[in-house]
Amino acid sequence: MDIVQTGSWGFGEGPLIIAGPCSAESEEQLMATARALKATGRVHLLRAGLWKPRSRPSSFTGEGFRALEWLRRVKAETGLPVAVEVASPEHARAAIEAGVDAVWLGARTVSNPFSVDAIAAALRGTDMPVMVKNPLSPDLDLWVGAIERVYSAGIRKIAAIHRGFTPYDKSRYRNLPKWELAIELRSRIPSLPVICDPSHMSGKASLVPETAQKALDMNMAGLMIEVHHDPARALSDKEQQLTPDEFDKMMGSLLFRSSTSGDIGFINHLEELRNRIDSIDHQLIGLLASRMRISEEMGEYKCRSGVTVFQLERWLEILESRTQHGISEGLDSEFVGKVIRMIHEESIRCQDVVIKKLHDAGGCPPAGSDGENE
Ligand code: PEP
Ligand code: MN
Question: Which residue has the higher pLDDT, 350 or 227?
Fold first, then answer.
């Protein structure tokens, strides 16, 4: 794909820094936030949501079309270019008319190909930069498909925004990063700039800086950060918005990868390999955690059933089958044996902890603890 890189969108060079409130709430709020952001000298593009896609209709749904006028004034006064989320062709047409400098498609919109087609059609023939957030579910084809739809409308200033995916379990993040999907997107469309939105990923202000650093370490093309002049009073996403001061401090402490020293081709390749390793390690840890949770469940099940039978055959079978599998994958048999022994030991420890807890609580009959198998 013949995509224009963010550095050539006219907002400045280096990683594209987008900051601003989740929602435009009033002209005063927008102006106060924009002035403070402008003063940091660290922002290329001011963001604000005018039409807010909220889960519940009773929540604040944005100030809508009338806020475009506020943005026009903010832009005139501060000189900051502005970006808004568009969720319909009407939004897109109004944004073009109001002189908005860039638009993005939100996660909910990207989940619906009909909406993406309709918005792309409304943008056809313009030079508008369009950023496409990932869909709510970790469906890479849906994300790529939305980018293709925008591209097919003749738009060439395109970037993706990685904002994470809806978790179905309790999670540290509001939206799971699943970094491997951003890596996979970049390998599918190598010319596509991918910007990270650590605010929606984190869901809480305290987690934004480390998530932003992780994104920069992964060589992302920019950051979109939610900043509100008074987050405690924000009408949407108050937990995750930074104050302008917090934003300034964070930006000052983030380590931006130097692209001036050394052979950049080599550095990029090395970084890509490291990202793949990071992603695999992340998955390995997740898999180990899932395995241990099953062990705990097994411990509880055995305990409640009064079963504590040591099955040497089961362990020997595990060791043998995993070692053979490892050898067939080209791994050293001694290494596989060591790893599987360590995992098995930890699994037994997890079972024991659960069994002891249950005994102490009188939840199952006392047993001669010989339950050291899986
Ligand atoms: C937003 O950027 O304020 C927004 C609604 O984001 P998302 O589409 O990522 O949920
Ligand atoms: Mn938001």
Answer: 227
Q: CATH 1.20.59.10 residue ranges in the chain?
A: 264-360
The CATH number given to 6-253 is 3.20.20.70
Q: So what's the pLDDT on residue 44?
A: 98
**CB distance 86 to ligand 1 below 6 Å:** no
Under 8 Å between Cβ of 23 and 238: no
Residue type, 11: F
Question: How distant, in Å, are the alpha carbons of 295, 301, 320, 349, 350 from that of 356?
Answer: 14, 13, 30, 10, 10
Question: Residue 228, exposed/middle/buried by CB under 10 A (0-12, 13-18, 19+)?
Answer: buried
Give, in words, the CATH class of 264-360.
mainly alpha
Highest mean pLDDT among 56-65, 76-85, 297-306, 308-317 belongs to 76-85
Pairing verdict, β 82-85 and 45-48 = parallel
User: Ligand 1 mean position to 46 CA, how many Å?
Assistant: 14
Calculate how far, in angstroms, residue 133's C-alpha sits from the geometric centre of ligand 1: 8
Please tell me if the CB atom of residue 107 comes closer than 6 angstroms to any atom of ligand 1. Answer: yes
- Least Cα distance to 183 among 162, 197, 200, 199 occurs for 162
Using a pLDDT cut of 70, give the percent of the chain over it. Answer: 94
CATH 3.20.20.70 region(s) of the chain? 6-253
Whole-structure pTM over 0.85, yes or no? no
Question: What are φ and ψ of residue 127, in 5° steps?
Answer: -105, 20
DSSP code per residue over 187-223: HHSTT--EEE-HHHHH-SGGGHHHHHHHHHHTT-SEE
Question: Which residue do the tokens 């832009």 mark?
Answer: 75
Give one DSSP letter per residue of 247-275, joined into a string: HHHHHHH--PPPSSSS-HHHHHHHHHHHH
For a ligand 1 pocket test, name from 132, 197, 208 the mutation site with the most ligand atoms within 8 angstroms of its C-beta. 197
